[in-house]
Amino acid sequence: MITGAVDVTQELAAFLRTRRERLDPHDLGLPARRRARRTPGLRREEVAELAGVSTDYIVRLEQARGLRPSADVVDALARALRLTPDERAYLFDLARQRPRDAGRPADTAEPPLARLVTDLSPLPAMLMNHRYDILAWNGEMAKLLLDFGTLPPRRRNAMWLCLMHPRTRELYLDRERVAREGIAHLRTAWAAHPQDQALSDLITECLTHDEEFARLWAEREVKVNGRGRKMMRHPDAGVIAVHFETLTPLQDPDRLLVIYRAADDESQAALDRLYAR
Predict the structure, then answer these.
(1) 64 & 26 share domain
(2) Residue range 97-153, pLDDT digits in tens
(3) What is the pLDDT of residue 211?
(4) Which segments constitute the HTH cro/C1-type domain (predicted)?
């Protein structure tokens, strides 16, 4: 359960443990051991050897005994555990070794960005922050997903809507993949914004009230997914396939500009019918 700020010591321990356990020793060219392995993945001493640290150091990290590894050690652990670029960034965030902007949270849409969202019509577009709070949207996005203006501000959150709202919960044909990718992004945001109480409250609510979220959150997947494809079954327009692209303004790096476009001619025709209603 998440209460208040991120418990980085416990999360760092769990993350290192799960990444160690998923590795196959044979894939790393490690010698076979006579004694059968009692646990999956690498042993702690093997990780220690690959990272150039002591086994006791790995033990203390995985037991959440308050260590704060240096940037060099984090880099060595990332290489030893074969972390992806997103996982590596997440590990640096947990170790507090990546500099962060200490400015105000991104809770509002700056006027130029809000105007840009409108100007992107007829492409559906919306602006979100790192929590997936929806800060601005155009009419096409409202018709495709939901009229966010009818919701209280605290419920204008893409993750909450995907999990909890009756209409958007049933919108995606590939719903588990959409939820999995969203949760993987949310975990990176959680590590990067440890003092964001609103984000912690959102995750706690989802963990408490949605079994699917709790199951996927426990898998500790970490990924920032900036583009892809989604399949929707719209109640008025039928099946629609869209490609999405997520852009980050250079001056506002905690904002996410999401743009949809039809993935095929049939989907474009369905969108045209929807917008004409």
Answers:
(1) yes
(2) 876 554 455 688 889 999 999 999 999 999 999 999 999 999 999 999 999 999 999
(3) 92
(4) 34-88
In this structure, what token pair is assigned to residue 164? 């909890």
Q: CA–CA separation, 61 vs 251, rounded Å? A: 36
pLDDT at position 30 is: 67
- Give how many domains the chain has, as a whole number: 2
d(CA 72, CA 57): 14
Is 137 found in the same domain as 62? Answer: no
Beta bridge partners of 126: 137, 258
DSSP-derived secondary structure for 70-88? -HHHHHHHHHHTT--HHHH
pLDDT (mean) for 199-221:
92
Q: Alpha carbon of 189 to those of 49, 82, 89, 153, 193: distances in Å?
A: 31, 21, 11, 20, 6
| Bond into 99 cis (ω within 30) | no
- What is the number of other CB atoms lying within 10 angstroms of the CB of residue 229? 11
The pLDDT tens digits of the residues spanning 9-23 come to 899 999 999 999 999
Reported as type and span, the H/E element at residue 236 is: none
